[in-house]
Amino acid sequence: MNNALEANSLSINRSGKPVLNDISFTVPAGEIYALLGGNGAGKSTTLLTFLGFLEAASGSVSVQGEQVNKNVKKAREAIAYLPEAATLYGHMSAYENLRYFLDLANAKASDSELNEALDSVALQTAARSQHMVTYSKGMRQKTAIALAILRDSPILLLDEPTSGLDPLAIDEFNRLARKLADQGRTILMVTHDVYGACQVADRIGLLRRGKLVGAFDRTEGEIDTETVHRAFAERAST
Amino acid sequence: MSTVYREFRFLMRERSALLWLGLAFMSATIAVVLGLKEVSEQRTTIADLITADQVEREVVKKDLADWGSAAYYSFHLTYDEPSDFAFAALGQRDLSPWKHRIRMLALEGQIYESDTTNPDFALIGRIDFAFVASLLSPLFLILLLHDLRSRERAAGRLDFIEATASGKMIWRTRGLLRTTLLWLCLVLPLWVGGIIAGASLMVLLIASAVVLTHLLIWWLIASWVANKDYTSAVNLVSLIGVWVVLAVITPAAIKAGVNVAVPIPDGGEILLTQREAVNDAWDLPKQATFEPFVKRHPELADYAKIDTPFEWKWYYAFQQVGDQNAESLSHAYLDGRIKRDVITSSLALLSPPVLTERLLQKQAQTDVAASIAYEERVRAYHADLRSWYYPKLFKDVEFETELLSLRPQYSTD
Fold first, then answer.
1. How far apart are CA B130 and CA B6, in angstroms?
2. Which end of chain B, C or N, has fewer beta carbons within 10 A?
3. Considering only CB atoms, which chain A residues are within 8 Å of B160?
């Protein structure tokens, strides 16, 4: 299987301090990979490196087989990125935000396609024309995911996608992530939500102080909440 | 949807940007209206003076009995007509006189006996378009551009936008679009004013290009600061600091430096020297007046003597000698002003607002060069009057009222 994302012996320094230290992992196309770790473990740094915002001190990252530092634009075109806050423009509606950001990404969508994408993330119809400043975090997240769907990007990078969501919204999100992966999209999500990761991820990496300290594979039967939670508590929570 | 159209629609939803653009448009409109009003008042004043001048000449003519009293009692209007673009940059017309009523008396004192110098205007200047374009427009642009990236970072959107847009071109597009719209808000009232005033197309195009270039310089400065990844507040304070340095401190330093480097006498000094010379002449032997006079007018040497206590030719001779005595000061003043202007025009490259203001004043013909050119026209006209009167005064030509209509006429060319 082709690897959509690949980190090879990646080390990153920020402000002169090492944030990632020689980590390696791969995410095959169509899989969900969850990078678990506590605060300051280097999770978001990993995502930003795949987007070409940070330069590797050593090692490399590749998107669809091509090193990011050699063609940042191409890497970004393949990726839909959802930052933790997922703050779209509050003074614009979901429709207006989607149209704006789609155009920014050189993508197009008809009105029916917009509604289809918003239907798939279950954003209430009545809310779609309202300014997003009135949205809950879950609604903003859904809109941002709808954008990723509409962009038709093969790869999604999600930064703490379930942080601040209520249990029902987390459930909805996990189902949606699974659906997207089943459609062939690759998802790399960073989170500290062990239960959510175990529910949805094909593989899980544990990150602690910039080092990968554990890996779990669903196909090997290694992903169950108790095992991962124990490992997280022992190896990755600080 | 084109990139520019997309960002234009985005901007149209942004209230703060619309507010600043609206204020810029209002400022430019007010400045243009005030400029048009001022120029219109100046034109009306000139027209009224021309009428009054003609009426007065006719009235005075009836009582004239000789060439001396004709020269003494006749006033001659000189004026500097505002250009069709003067409404945009009033420049030196606020500081230097643009109209005089001169007589055949010593001239230098009459030139510098200014009636238009207003200390308030000398301090802050008038709010004309040049003021808005050179001093206020950078502030509007700073307000429009200082937080383009930083507020997105603060909102957690920066990486998201740059990742979605696959690069940083979006900031250039947003910045240039705001710069262009600000430019349009400034030049639209200028063009309307220009059409009303009958300004030439070329002048309007050059002025618009000057304003655009000025804004692009500030766009570069703002982009440079904004790319430093500071917060919006730090960006704003930094850019206001740059504005203070370039728009306030640098011009003040240039002016102070140039004044020290090129000392010049002031108009009052010239006036005093000339008047002292004229007043002293009453108590000096007549020959003390005629000697320096004849050096300038050797063709009148045979007539430069009087046997009576007073004759008009002696009176006008010592008026001229008064000018001759003040001549070195007057030349120093004139040369100094030109030299200061030349140096300032080079140093203006250090201050985009000063450069912009000077370029607009040049287009409006309200700069120092235009002011000096007007003074020179007044001197030339006065010299023509002397050339016309002197042969009649010195050679005892019989007085004929009808001949007064042949006196040189002031021309604005």
1. 32
2. C
3. 81-83, 86-87
To the nearest whole Å, the CA of A105 is away from the closest chain B CA by 5
Q: Are B1 and A103 an interchain contact pair (Cβ–Cβ within 8 Å)?
A: yes
Element (H, E) at B369: helix B368-394
**A122-146 pLDDT, tens digit each:** 889 999 999 999 998 888 888 988 8
Closest approach of chain B CAs to the CA of A214, in angstroms? Answer: 28
Shortest Cα distance, chain B CAs vs residue A234, angstroms: 32
The single-letter code of the amino acid at B383 is A
Q: Do A81 and B164 touch (CB under 8 A)?
A: yes
A88 contacts in B (CB within 8 Å)?
A: 157
Size of chain B in residues: 413
Cα-flanking dihedrals φ and ψ of residue A12, to 5°?
-130, 135
- Give the integer Cα–Cα distance in Å for A50 and A176: 23
Domain A3-90+153-236: which topology?
A: Rossmann fold (3.40.50)
CB contact under 8 A, A83 and B170: no
Q: Which of B13, B163, B170 sits opposite A91 (nearest CB)?
A: B13
Q: Domain boundaries in chain A?
A: 3-90+153-236
Nearest residue on chain A to B6, judged by CA atoms?
A100
Amino acid at B33: V
Whether residue A173 is predicted with pLDDT greater than 50 in this model: the reply is yes
- Collapsing DSSP to helix, strand or coil, A27 comes out as strand
Q: What is the 3-state secondary structure (H, E, C) of chain A?
A: CCEEEEEEEEEEEECCEEEEEEEEEEEECCCEEEEEECCCCCHHHHHHHHCCCCCCCEEEEEECCEEHHHCHHHHHHHEEEECCCCCCCCCCEHHHHHHHHHHHCCCCCCHHHHHHHHHHCCCCHHHCCCEHHHCCHHHHHHHHHHHHHHHCCCEEEEECCCCCCCHHHHHHHHHHHHHHHHCCCEEEEEECCHHHHHHHCCEEEEEECCEEEEEEEHHHCCCCHHHHHHHHHHHHCC
Smallest CA–CA distance, residue A195 to chain B, in Å, is 26
CB-closest option in B1, B160, B166 to A83: B160
- Contact between chains at B159 and A81 (C-beta distance less than 8 A): yes
Interface contact B167-A76, CB threshold 8 A: yes
pLDDT in tens, A94-120: 999 999 999 998 888 999 999 998 988
Please judge whether B157 and A83 are an interchain contact, meaning their C-beta atoms are less than 8 angstroms apart.
yes
pLDDT mean values, one per 10 residues, chain B (413 residues) = 88 93 98 96 95 89 87 91 95 84 85 60 72 97 95 89 84 95 98 97 98 98 91 96 96 94 87 89 88 91 85 91 91 93 95 96 95 93 94 90 90 80
pLDDT at A193 over 90: no
CB contact under 8 A, B163 and A76: yes
Q: Which residues in chain B are contacts of A87 at CB distance < 8 A?
A: 155-157, 160
> Which tokens in the block code for residue B55?
């009426």
Q: Name the one residue in this structure whose structure tokens are 């979006």.
A: B170
Q: Residue ranges of the alpha helices (H) in B136-200? A: 137-145, 150-154, 158-165, 169-197
